[in-house]
Protein backbone atom coordinates (compact mmCIF):
# COMPACT_ATOMS: atom_id res chain seq x y z
CA UNK A 1 0.00 0.00 0.00
CA UNK A 2 1.33 3.42 -0.94
CA UNK A 3 0.78 6.82 0.62
CA UNK A 4 -1.60 9.40 -0.82
CA UNK A 5 -0.40 11.78 -3.54
CA UNK A 6 -0.12 14.90 -1.32
CA UNK A 7 2.14 13.15 1.19
CA UNK A 8 4.19 11.64 -1.64
CA UNK A 9 4.73 15.12 -3.06
CA UNK A 10 5.98 16.34 0.34
CA UNK A 11 8.20 13.28 0.73
CA UNK A 12 9.71 13.91 -2.69
CA UNK A 13 10.50 17.50 -1.74
CA UNK A 14 12.23 16.41 1.47
CA UNK A 15 14.14 13.71 -0.40
CA UNK A 16 15.38 16.13 -3.06
CA UNK A 17 16.49 18.61 -0.39
CA UNK A 18 18.32 16.00 1.69
CA UNK A 19 20.21 14.74 -1.38
CA UNK A 20 20.91 18.15 -2.90
CA UNK A 21 24.07 18.84 -0.93
CA UNK A 22 22.47 22.01 0.46
CA UNK A 23 20.63 20.52 3.45
CA UNK A 24 21.57 21.98 6.84
CA UNK A 25 21.41 20.25 10.20
CA UNK A 26 18.15 22.09 10.82
CA UNK A 27 16.78 20.80 7.50
CA UNK A 28 17.65 17.22 8.43
CA UNK A 29 16.03 17.61 11.84
CA UNK A 30 12.88 19.06 10.24
CA UNK A 31 12.75 16.22 7.71
CA UNK A 32 13.07 13.67 10.50
CA UNK A 33 10.31 15.38 12.47
CA UNK A 34 8.05 15.39 9.38
CA UNK A 35 8.67 11.70 8.85
CA UNK A 36 7.76 10.91 12.48
CA UNK A 37 4.51 12.89 12.35
CA UNK A 38 2.42 9.83 11.54
CA UNK A 39 2.62 6.31 10.03
CA UNK A 40 1.32 7.79 6.75
CA UNK A 41 4.27 10.21 6.63
CA UNK A 42 6.66 7.33 7.29
CA UNK A 43 5.02 5.29 4.51
CA UNK A 44 5.40 8.17 2.04
CA UNK A 45 9.09 8.52 2.88
CA UNK A 46 9.62 4.77 2.46
CA UNK A 47 7.80 4.75 -0.89
CA UNK A 48 10.02 7.51 -2.26
CA UNK A 49 13.17 5.79 -0.95
CA UNK A 50 12.07 2.54 -2.59
CA UNK A 51 11.83 4.17 -5.99
CA UNK A 52 15.12 6.02 -5.47
CA UNK A 53 16.78 2.66 -4.74
CA UNK A 54 15.30 1.23 -7.95
CA UNK A 55 16.73 4.13 -9.92
CA UNK A 56 20.12 3.43 -8.38
CA UNK A 57 19.94 -0.19 -9.54
CA UNK A 58 18.96 0.83 -13.06
CA UNK A 59 21.78 3.32 -13.29
CA UNK A 60 24.38 1.10 -11.66
CA UNK A 61 27.54 0.69 -13.70
CA UNK A 62 28.75 -2.85 -14.49
CA UNK A 63 31.64 -4.42 -12.59
CA UNK A 64 35.09 -3.80 -13.99
CA UNK A 65 36.04 -6.08 -16.85
CA UNK A 66 39.31 -8.04 -16.88
CA UNK A 67 42.31 -5.95 -17.82
CA UNK A 68 42.74 -7.82 -21.10
CA UNK A 69 39.26 -6.78 -22.17
CA UNK A 70 39.70 -3.13 -21.25
CA UNK A 71 40.81 -1.93 -24.66
CA UNK A 72 39.80 1.30 -26.32
CA UNK A 73 37.51 -0.19 -29.06
CA UNK A 74 35.20 -1.61 -26.36
CA UNK A 75 34.63 1.71 -24.64
CA UNK A 76 31.90 2.82 -27.03
CA UNK A 77 30.24 -0.61 -26.91
CA UNK A 78 30.06 -0.54 -23.09
CA UNK A 79 28.62 2.98 -23.09
CA UNK A 80 25.92 1.94 -25.55
CA UNK A 81 25.11 -1.17 -23.50
CA UNK A 82 24.32 0.97 -20.47
CA UNK A 83 22.56 3.76 -22.34
CA UNK A 84 19.22 1.93 -22.14
CA UNK A 85 19.07 1.37 -18.34
CA UNK A 86 20.36 4.87 -17.71
CA UNK A 87 17.71 6.29 -20.04
CA UNK A 88 15.09 4.19 -18.21
CA UNK A 89 16.27 5.66 -14.93
CA UNK A 90 15.96 9.16 -16.38
CA UNK A 91 12.39 8.41 -17.49
CA UNK A 92 11.52 7.16 -14.02
CA UNK A 93 12.96 10.29 -12.45
CA UNK A 94 10.87 12.49 -14.71
CA UNK A 95 7.76 10.44 -14.02
CA UNK A 96 8.31 10.70 -10.27
CA UNK A 97 9.28 14.36 -9.88
CA UNK A 98 6.86 15.72 -12.52
CA UNK A 99 3.31 14.63 -11.57
CA UNK A 100 1.13 13.52 -14.45
CA UNK A 101 -0.62 16.39 -16.20
CA UNK A 102 1.06 19.03 -14.02
CA UNK A 103 2.18 21.11 -17.01
CA UNK A 104 -1.36 21.31 -18.39
CA UNK A 105 -2.88 23.09 -15.42
CA UNK A 106 -0.21 25.78 -15.16
CA UNK A 107 -1.59 28.09 -17.85
CA UNK A 108 -4.83 26.50 -19.12
CA UNK A 109 -8.12 28.33 -18.57
CA UNK A 110 -9.82 25.07 -17.57
CA UNK A 111 -8.18 21.83 -16.44
CA UNK A 112 -9.12 18.62 -14.66
CA UNK A 113 -7.03 16.23 -12.61
CA UNK A 114 -6.94 12.49 -13.42
CA UNK A 115 -10.22 10.96 -12.32
CA UNK A 116 -12.04 14.32 -12.22
CA UNK A 117 -15.01 15.10 -14.48
CA UNK A 118 -16.03 18.75 -14.56
CA UNK A 119 -18.75 20.77 -16.30
CA UNK A 120 -18.21 24.42 -17.24
CA UNK A 121 -20.68 26.98 -18.62
CA UNK A 122 -19.02 29.55 -20.90
CA UNK A 123 -20.03 33.19 -21.29
CA UNK A 124 -21.92 32.44 -24.52
CA UNK A 125 -24.06 29.78 -22.84
CA UNK A 126 -22.14 26.79 -24.23
CA UNK A 127 -21.55 23.93 -21.81
CA UNK A 128 -18.35 21.87 -21.72
CA UNK A 129 -17.90 18.61 -19.82
CA UNK A 130 -14.24 17.73 -19.32
CA UNK A 131 -12.99 14.19 -18.83
CA UNK A 132 -10.06 13.54 -16.48
CA UNK A 133 -6.56 14.89 -17.25
CA UNK A 134 -7.90 17.48 -19.69
CA UNK A 135 -6.73 21.04 -20.30
CA UNK A 136 -7.99 23.74 -22.66
CA UNK A 137 -8.05 27.47 -23.31
CA UNK A 138 -11.14 29.54 -24.16
CA UNK A 139 -11.38 32.87 -25.98
CA UNK A 140 -14.34 34.86 -27.24
CA UNK A 141 -14.56 37.96 -29.41
CA UNK A 142 -17.17 39.77 -31.51
CA UNK A 143 -16.88 37.41 -34.48
CA UNK A 144 -15.35 34.25 -33.07
CA UNK A 145 -15.48 31.72 -30.23
CA UNK A 146 -12.46 29.45 -29.87
CA UNK A 147 -11.27 26.50 -27.80
CA UNK A 148 -7.69 25.21 -27.82
CA UNK A 149 -7.63 21.65 -26.47
CA UNK A 150 -4.11 20.81 -25.31
CA UNK A 151 -4.82 17.25 -24.24
CA UNK A 152 -7.71 15.15 -23.00
CA UNK A 153 -11.37 14.86 -23.89
CA UNK A 154 -14.38 17.13 -23.71
CA UNK A 155 -18.05 17.04 -24.62
CA UNK A 156 -19.21 20.30 -26.27
CA UNK A 157 -22.81 21.55 -26.14
CA UNK A 158 -22.37 24.68 -28.25
CA UNK A 159 -24.92 27.49 -27.95
CA UNK A 160 -26.24 28.55 -31.35
CA UNK A 161 -24.88 31.85 -32.66
CA UNK A 162 -24.52 32.18 -36.45
CA UNK A 163 -22.69 35.51 -36.06
CA UNK A 164 -19.93 33.96 -33.96
CA UNK A 165 -18.75 30.54 -35.23
CA UNK A 166 -17.30 28.21 -32.62
CA UNK A 167 -13.85 26.76 -33.41
CA UNK A 168 -11.97 23.92 -31.72
CA UNK A 169 -8.29 23.21 -32.32
CA UNK A 170 -6.65 20.02 -31.02
CA UNK A 171 -3.31 18.96 -32.47
CA UNK A 172 -3.87 18.64 -36.24
CA UNK A 173 -7.65 18.88 -35.91
CA UNK A 174 -9.63 21.96 -36.96
CA UNK A 175 -13.35 21.95 -36.12
CA UNK A 176 -15.96 24.62 -36.90
CA UNK A 177 -19.61 24.80 -35.80
CA UNK A 178 -22.27 27.40 -35.08
CA UNK A 179 -24.31 25.33 -32.63
CA UNK A 180 -24.40 21.57 -31.98
CA UNK A 181 -23.13 18.80 -29.66
CA UNK A 182 -19.98 16.75 -30.16
CA UNK A 183 -17.08 15.09 -28.34
CA UNK A 184 -13.37 15.67 -29.03
CA UNK A 185 -10.78 13.17 -27.75
CA UNK A 186 -7.08 14.10 -28.06
CA UNK A 187 -4.40 11.81 -26.60
CA UNK A 188 -1.46 13.92 -27.68
CA UNK A 189 -1.15 12.21 -31.07
CA UNK A 190 -4.49 11.22 -32.62
CA UNK A 191 -7.79 13.09 -32.41
CA UNK A 192 -11.29 11.58 -32.57
CA UNK A 193 -14.36 13.73 -33.24
CA UNK A 194 -17.74 12.16 -32.41
CA UNK A 195 -20.89 14.09 -33.35
CA UNK A 196 -24.12 13.41 -31.46
CA UNK A 197 -26.27 16.32 -32.68
CA UNK A 198 -26.24 18.62 -35.69
CA UNK A 199 -23.36 18.95 -38.13
CA UNK A 200 -19.68 19.77 -37.69
CA UNK A 201 -17.09 20.95 -40.22
CA UNK A 202 -13.76 19.14 -39.81
CA UNK A 203 -10.44 19.72 -41.54
CA UNK A 204 -6.68 19.41 -41.17
CA UNK A 205 -3.90 21.65 -42.44
CA UNK A 206 -4.09 20.18 -45.96
CA UNK A 207 -7.52 18.63 -46.60
CA UNK A 208 -10.71 20.26 -47.76
CA UNK A 209 -13.38 20.66 -45.03
CA UNK A 210 -15.34 17.49 -44.30
CA UNK A 211 -18.90 17.61 -42.97
CA UNK A 212 -19.49 15.24 -40.05
CA UNK A 213 -23.13 14.69 -39.13
CA UNK A 214 -24.95 13.25 -36.14
CA UNK A 215 -24.04 9.63 -35.34
CA UNK A 216 -20.77 9.93 -37.26
CA UNK A 217 -17.16 10.09 -36.11
CA UNK A 218 -13.83 10.86 -37.75
CA UNK A 219 -10.19 10.49 -36.73
CA UNK A 220 -7.08 12.54 -37.37
CA UNK A 221 -4.09 10.17 -37.54
CA UNK A 222 -0.58 11.10 -38.57
CA UNK A 223 -1.88 14.70 -38.77
CA UNK A 224 -4.22 13.74 -41.61
CA UNK A 225 -8.01 13.56 -41.57
CA UNK A 226 -9.26 10.00 -42.10
CA UNK A 227 -12.51 8.78 -43.75
CA UNK A 228 -15.86 9.10 -41.97
CA UNK A 229 -17.13 6.25 -39.82
CA UNK A 230 -20.38 5.42 -38.07
CA UNK A 231 -20.29 6.63 -34.46
CA UNK A 232 -19.66 3.86 -31.94
CA UNK A 233 -21.23 5.81 -29.08
CA UNK A 234 -21.19 2.85 -26.69
CA UNK A 235 -17.40 2.82 -26.75
CA UNK A 236 -16.35 6.34 -27.75
CA UNK A 237 -18.71 8.12 -25.35
CA UNK A 238 -18.68 5.52 -22.58
CA UNK A 239 -16.98 7.94 -20.15
CA UNK A 240 -20.10 10.13 -20.20
CA UNK A 241 -22.04 7.17 -18.79
CA UNK A 242 -19.41 6.38 -16.16
CA UNK A 243 -17.97 3.44 -18.09
CA UNK A 244 -14.75 2.32 -19.74
CA UNK A 245 -15.36 0.08 -22.76
CA UNK A 246 -12.53 -1.77 -24.51
CA UNK A 247 -12.95 -3.97 -27.59
CA UNK A 248 -9.77 -5.77 -28.50
CA UNK A 249 -7.82 -2.57 -27.83
CA UNK A 250 -4.01 -2.63 -27.54
CA UNK A 251 -2.70 -2.51 -24.00
CA UNK A 252 -0.91 0.76 -24.77
CA UNK A 253 -4.24 2.45 -25.61
CA UNK A 254 -5.87 1.01 -22.50
CA UNK A 255 -3.19 2.50 -20.26
CA UNK A 256 -3.49 5.85 -22.07
CA UNK A 257 -7.17 5.82 -21.15
CA UNK A 258 -6.44 4.81 -17.57
CA UNK A 259 -4.06 7.75 -17.12
CA UNK A 260 -7.17 9.95 -17.34
CA UNK A 261 -8.72 8.28 -14.34
CA UNK A 262 -5.78 7.73 -11.99
CA UNK A 263 -2.70 9.65 -10.85
CA UNK A 264 -0.24 7.08 -12.08
CA UNK A 265 2.25 7.22 -14.91
CA UNK A 266 2.77 4.06 -16.96
CA UNK A 267 6.14 2.93 -18.31
CA UNK A 268 6.54 -0.16 -20.52
CA UNK A 269 9.75 -1.99 -19.61
CA UNK A 270 8.95 -4.60 -22.28
CA UNK A 271 7.69 -3.12 -25.54
CA UNK A 272 6.41 -6.50 -26.76
CA UNK A 273 3.37 -6.28 -24.45
CA UNK A 274 2.10 -2.98 -25.84
CA UNK A 275 0.00 -4.69 -28.55
CA UNK A 276 -1.67 -7.28 -26.33
CA UNK A 277 -5.45 -6.89 -26.66
CA UNK A 278 -7.94 -6.02 -23.92
CA UNK A 279 -11.72 -6.50 -24.05
CA UNK A 280 -14.16 -5.61 -21.28
CA UNK A 281 -16.54 -3.12 -19.68
CA UNK A 282 -15.49 -1.43 -16.42
CA UNK A 283 -16.59 1.37 -14.12
CA UNK A 284 -14.92 4.67 -15.02
CA UNK A 285 -14.08 5.36 -11.38
CA UNK A 286 -12.53 1.92 -10.71
CA UNK A 287 -9.28 1.72 -12.72
CA UNK A 288 -7.96 -0.92 -10.31
CA UNK A 289 -10.55 -3.35 -11.70
CA UNK A 290 -8.98 -2.92 -15.14
CA UNK A 291 -5.52 -3.60 -13.72
CA UNK A 292 -6.74 -6.73 -11.96
CA UNK A 293 -8.30 -7.99 -15.19
CA UNK A 294 -5.08 -7.31 -17.11
CA UNK A 295 -2.98 -9.19 -14.57
CA UNK A 296 -5.41 -12.14 -14.54
CA UNK A 297 -5.84 -12.54 -18.30
CA UNK A 298 -2.64 -11.33 -19.98
CA UNK A 299 0.99 -12.47 -19.68
CA UNK A 300 2.09 -9.24 -18.04
CA UNK A 301 3.60 -8.21 -14.72
CA UNK A 302 2.59 -4.91 -13.12
CA UNK A 303 4.91 -3.35 -10.56
CA UNK A 304 3.23 -0.60 -8.55
CA UNK A 305 5.45 2.20 -7.26
CA UNK A 306 4.51 5.61 -5.89
CA UNK A 307 3.03 7.47 -8.84
CA UNK A 308 4.28 4.83 -11.29
CA UNK A 309 3.15 1.59 -12.89
CA UNK A 310 5.91 -0.49 -14.53
CA UNK A 311 4.68 -2.97 -17.17
CA UNK A 312 6.67 -6.00 -18.32
CA UNK A 313 6.07 -9.50 -19.63
CA UNK A 314 5.49 -12.12 -16.93
Report on this model:
The structure is a single chain. With 314 residues, the protein is of the alpha+beta class. Strand 18 (300-305) and strand 19 form a beta hairpin. Helix 1 (5-18) runs antiparallel to helix 2 (25-35). The strands form 3 sheets. Strands 1, 2, 3, 4, 5, 6, 7, 8, 9, 10, 11, 12, 13 and 14 form a 14-stranded mixed sheet that branches. Strands 16-19-18 form a 3-stranded mixed sheet, sandwiched between helices. Strands 15-17 form a two-stranded antiparallel ribbon. Helix content is 31%, strand content 33%. It starts with a helix and ends with a strand. It has 9 helices and 19 strands. Residues 243-301 form the Protein FecR C-terminal domain. It holds the Pfam family DUF4880.
In short:
The chain is an alpha+beta fold.
Outline the fold blueprint.
Blueprint lengths: L4 H14 L6 H11 L3 H20 L14 H9 L1 H15 L4 H6 L2 E2 L6 E4 L5 E4 L4 E7 L2 E14 L8 E5 L2 E5 L3 E6 L4 E7 L1 E5 L6 E4 L2 E6 L2 E2 L3 E2 L2 H4 L6 E8 H8 L6 E4 L8 E7 L3 H11 L2 E6 L2 E6 L1
Parallel strand pairs: 5-6, 16-19
Antiparallel strand pairs: 1-4, 2-3, 3-5, 4-5, 5-8, 6-7, 7-10, 8-9, 9-12, 10-11, 12-13, 12-14, 15-17, 18-19
Helix pairs in contact: 1-2, 1-3, 3-5
Amino acid sequence: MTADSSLLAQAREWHVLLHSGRATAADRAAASAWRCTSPAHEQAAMDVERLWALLGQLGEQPASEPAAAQVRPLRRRRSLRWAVPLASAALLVLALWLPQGAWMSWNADFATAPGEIRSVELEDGSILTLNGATALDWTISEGRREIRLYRGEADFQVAKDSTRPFFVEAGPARIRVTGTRFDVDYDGQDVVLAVTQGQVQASDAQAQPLLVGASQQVRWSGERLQPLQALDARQQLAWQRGKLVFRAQPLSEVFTELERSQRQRVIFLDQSVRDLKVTGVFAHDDPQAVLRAIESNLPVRLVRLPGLLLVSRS
